[in-house]
Amino acid sequence: MRMIKNILTAHTKKIRFLARFIFGIIILIFLLYSVDPASVAAVILSINPLFLVFALLLYAVTFLILSFRWRFILRRMGYAISWKTAYRAFAAGVLVSDLTPARIGELSRPLAIRNQVPVQAGMISVLADRYLDILVIFVLGSIGLLFISKACDIPLFPVLLILILLLATPVILLSIDRKHVVRIAGFLGSARLNDLVRSLDEIISHTHHLPTLLGTGILLTIISWVLQAARIMVICFATGYPVPLGELIVVQPLISALSLVPVSIAGLGLVEGGYAAMLSLFGVPVATGMAIALLDRFLTVVFHLAVGGRTAAAMI
C-alpha cells in the first residue's frame, strides 16, 4: 500500500512539474507573439557577444559574493567549508531551483555539503541565507515600488513600512526574549507562524555574534543586488538602451520576486514579462525588453549548469 502511495505521489509531482513548465512556456509564447517574435530575434542577433561575456563575468562575481555570504553564515555556526565547495554547492542549489516552483529547490543545497556539514545544520544555514535575501528584497523592492507608484500618486509608504517591520520583528524579538516569543507563537495556534518562529529560534541558537552576521549578511546582499542590476544594465547597453543603475537596483528585486510565484517553474514567463514591463518605464521598447529578459535567463541558466551541474547531479 505504501509503495502504491509513493508511486502516486511521484506521479503527481511529475504532472505538477509538467503543468507548471507548460504554463510558463505558454506565457512566454503569448508574450513573444504579443510583441512580434521577429523583432525579439533581431535584437538578440544584433548584440555584440562581448557584452554578454562581460554580463556573465558580473554574474560569476555575484555568485562569489552570495556564496561568501552563505559560507560566512556556516562559519558563524561553527562549520568551515572551502570557497570552491561553497561556490559549486550554491550554484547547484540555484540550478535545482531553476527546475522548481517558487525556487524551493534551493533548500536542496545542504545535500551538496552533507559530507562536511550535517543536513539539519545546513538547512538552518540556507534558511538564514534566504531570510537575508528576502529582507533586502523587501527593503529595496519597497523603494522600487515607491519609485514606480510616484507617477500613479498612490500612498504606499505606510503599507510598505508595516511589511518591512513585520519581516524584521521576529528576529528582533527573538534576539531579545526568545522563549516568550516561541510560547506566544505556539499559543496563537498558527502552524506556519509556529514553524517560522521555531526555525528562526533555531537559527539564532546556532549562530555566534548575531548582529555581526546580520550586518555583514545584509551588506553582502546589497552588493549582490548592485551587481545583479549592473548585469542587466550591461545587456541593456548592448541593445542601445542605457538604463540608470540606481533605479535598476531598487526595481529589479520586484521582478526577481516574481520567480517566487508558484504557478510556473522558477517564474518562467512571469519574470520575462516583468522585465519587459519594468524596462519599458525607462524607454526600452517591449520587444527589446523581452530580448534582454530571454538573454539574461539563458546566461544565468547556462552558468548554473556549467558551475553547479556536476554537484547537482551528485545531490540527486
Strand content: under 5%
* Oligomeric state, counting identical vs distinct chains: single chain
> What are the segments in which pLDDT stays under 50 over at least 5 consecutive residues?
1-8
Rg, alpha carbons? 21 Å
The total count of strands amounts to 0
Arithmetic mean of pLDDT: 82
Number of domains: 1
Largest sheet, if any? Answer: none
> What is the count of DSSP helices, taking H or I runs of 4+ residues?
12
Supply the helix-strand structural class. mainly alpha
Q: Approximately how much helix is present in the residues?
A: over 70%
H/E topology pattern: HHHHHHHHHHHH
| Shape by Cα distribution | globular
Terminus-to-terminus distance: 25 Å
How do the strands and helices of this protein lay out in sequence?
Elements: H1 2-35, H2 37-46, H3 49-76, H4 83-97, H5 119-149, H6 157-176, H7 178-188, H8 191-205, H9 210-238, H10 245-256, H11 270-280, H12 286-315
Summarize the model shown.
This protein is an all-alpha fold and 316 residues long. It is built from twelve helices and no strands.
Describe, in plain words, how this protein is organized in 3D.
It contains twelve helices and no strands. The protein is mainly alpha-helical and 316 residues long. The protein has one domain (49-315). The longest helix is centred in the first third of the chain and has 34 residues, at 2-35. The chain is globular and about 55 Å long. The two termini are 25 Å apart.
Note the main attributes of this structure.
316 residues, mainly alpha
